Each structure stands twice: as C-alpha cells, then as structure tokens.
Amino acid sequence: MDVGCITNNLPSIAHPPKHGTKEDKEDEPLVFDASLPRHEHNLPKQFIWPDEEKPCLNPPELVVPLVDLRGFLSGDPVAAMEASGLMSEACRKHGFFLVVNHGIDSRLISHAHRFMDDFFELPLSQKQRAQRKKGEHCGYASSFPGRFSSKLPWKETLSFQFSADKHSKNLVKDYLCEKMGHEFEQFGMVYQEYCEAMSNLSLVIMELLGMSLGVGRTCFREFFDNNNSIMRLNYYPPCQKPDLTLGTGPHCDPTSLTILHQDKVGGLQVYVDNEWHSITPNFNAFVVNIGDTFMALSNGRYKSCLHRAVVNNQKTRKSLAFFLCPRDDKVVTPPSELVDHVSPRIYPDFTWPMFLEFTQKHYRADMNTLDQFTNWVQRNKS
C-alpha cells in the first residue's frame, strides 16, 4: 500500500489520507499502519501518554491464585469448594485469577494464536476490508485514531461477536468470511470453535462464582447460558519507545468476565494496592478477570480491577480475549441473596446493550466507567 506523503511532521507509522488540502488533512484522523513502526524512533504525540500513566520499569509480579478445575469438572465436591474459595478470595481483592486443567484442547489454543498472523501480517489495505465502523464494537481497528485524538494505544485488534444461541451456530465464521472472503473460511472455523470453547469454560467459571457468592451453581450459569459475547484478537507490534506509550491504556472491562490467553511475550499489568503489578504469562493457563457488568451483578461484592497492557521494543505480543456478556434482553440485577440492609443496591438495573452503547458513544472506558454509567442512567431516567 502506498502510504503517501507525510504532513504535520508525523513519521510514517501514522499518516493522513492522500487527498485534499492541508487543512482537510489536519482535521482527518491518523491512520496507524502497524507494518511500519518496527524501526521508528519518533512517536507521534498522539501515542505519547502523560507522565503519570507511562509504563513503569520492572513492576512486581502480582500473586494470583492458580485455580485447578480438574476436580470440579470430574465432580469432586471438595475440589469444587476449594476452587470456589480461591476465586472468592481473588475477586474480593482484585478480580484476577488463573485457571488450569480447564479441558480446552491445547492444539486449539495454538491454532488460535497461529492464525492471528494470517490476518495481522496482511497489508493494511486488506485488513481494512474488515474495518470497524464508528460507533460499532466489531471489526478491525488500528489504534482507534477515529475514536480518540490522544493517548492512542499501540496495537491492532480484530473483534467479532459470538452467540451461544443454537440459531446462530456459525456467526463467527460467517462474519469473518463475509468481511475477508471465503479464503478465510478455515480462519473463521478456528475462531468459531475457540469461542464455543470459551463460552463453555465461562459457564463452568460462573458455576463456581455462584457457589462462592452463596447463590448456587445454576444462578449465574443460567443467566449467561445463551450469552451474546465478544471475541477480540490483540496484536501489539514492537515499539522503539516502549517507555512512552501503552498497548492498552488503564481501564476496567465493562463486560462480565474476561478470559485471556497470553502468548509467551507478556505485557499484562494490574493495579493493586496503589501499584502496578505484572502477570507472568503461563501458556497452560487462562487469565480470568471480573468485569464491570459482573461487579454490578454481584452488587459490588466482587471487584472489576484496573489493568493495562505494555509493549516492548523486541517482539510482537499477541493475546486472545473472550469477553462474556449476557444476552441482550437479560436485565443485570443482583440476586436477592446479595441485597439486604447491610448491602443495599449499589447500581441500577440495566441491559448489556445499554452499557455497551455508553462505552462506544459516550465514555472512554477507564476505572470510573461503571460509576459514570450509573450517573448517566439516573440522569436519563430523571
């Protein structure tokens, strides 16, 4: 792809469209071509984060519980109690834990990582066939310059919707083939299968979370049974100034539950006890964290924690993120067992599409997203 001439003294990693006057170009969002920045030492100011948010060197490692699912999956009640207890402890403190012996085929995980290269190593013009449109959450996004004018993340993503409804059996595959062509059919089949595996795993985790909160195994599993979730492929190219930018800025996930698989490069950091901590990659484990929607569902008992991703100057980092979300018509309201005079209602009733619209059109996700959304809902009601 011809990147054209560069204006505004911007380096070639971020460039405006090729046509129009200088004034027109200054009003246009930048285009981030991730194939070019590997050797670029000058970062556009839009990618440079404020000093108080820049990555720290050698953060301490976060000690997160390793939850072994083998016993629970085999029906061992003692193992189930132990697993739910570990989750409860983590979720009351920071909302992060690892799961191992989860039953997901290791070959499927490897394929899901390998097939990312088939997409992200394409020329920019071909990836843009799946371009994410303004106000939407699915499609290809290259650093989100169309949404934000500062603090841009150093990454590319490909997001698509998954439905556990039996009438939407091939939603992922059909979407990817529609956007990228039928030569991406195998690509689509891999992520269709991966999403189905993540959906099943999330329901297992929801059983244990239900046990840990004293509302029973079926409460949350049934709530998310026909989930309407989001899958995201994250691709963080090397950056020659990793101390100035971030792959993903500090935020809490607005979704219910995130199941993340990191490659071996690492870069996930979590903010706990007023300090950033790293979570070391473990290819045999999934990193699980509570999102804002489940924090509301638990009436604030379980925490949605601030986290971010950093980049490095040597290697591309890849991660697979499955964001569990309830079906569109489900009302997010805590079970009656979690509401009493000691723990009154904290958040209003809402549906996931309401919250998603808020984060896409009205508010950039950060540590205050759920509180800001609560205020927004109350203002609209009044």
From TrEMBL:
Region Disordered, residue ranges: 1-26
Which pathway does the database say it acts in?
Hormone biosynthesis; Plant hormone biosynthesis; gibberellin biosynthesis
Can you name one GO molecular function term for this protein?
Answer: gibberellin 20-oxidase activity
In this chain, composition skew of type Polar residues spans 1-11
Q: Which reaction does it catalyse?
A: gibberellin A12 + 2 2-oxoglutarate + 3 O2 + H(+) = gibberellin A9 + 2 succinate + 3 CO2 + 2 H2O
Which segments does the entry list as coiled coil?
none
Q: Give one GO biological process term.
A: gibberellin biosynthetic process
Keywords attached to this Swiss-Prot or TrEMBL record, sorted alphabetically, are: Iron, Metal-binding, Oxidoreductase
Domain Fe2OG dioxygenase stretches:
226-326
Cofactors: L-ascorbate
- Highest taxon, organism lineage: Eukaryota
Family matches, as Pfam families: 2OG-FeII_Oxy (PF03171), DIOX_N (PF14226)
Q: Which InterPro entries match?
A: DIOX_N, IPNS-like_FE2OG_OXY, IPNS-like_sf, Iron_ascorbate_oxido_reductase, Oxoglu/Fe-dep_dioxygenase_dom
By sequence similarity, the record places it as follows:
Belongs to the iron/ascorbate-dependent oxidoreductase family. GA20OX subfamily.
Q: What is this protein called?
A: Fe2OG dioxygenase domain-containing protein
Species this chain originates from:
Acacia crassicarpa
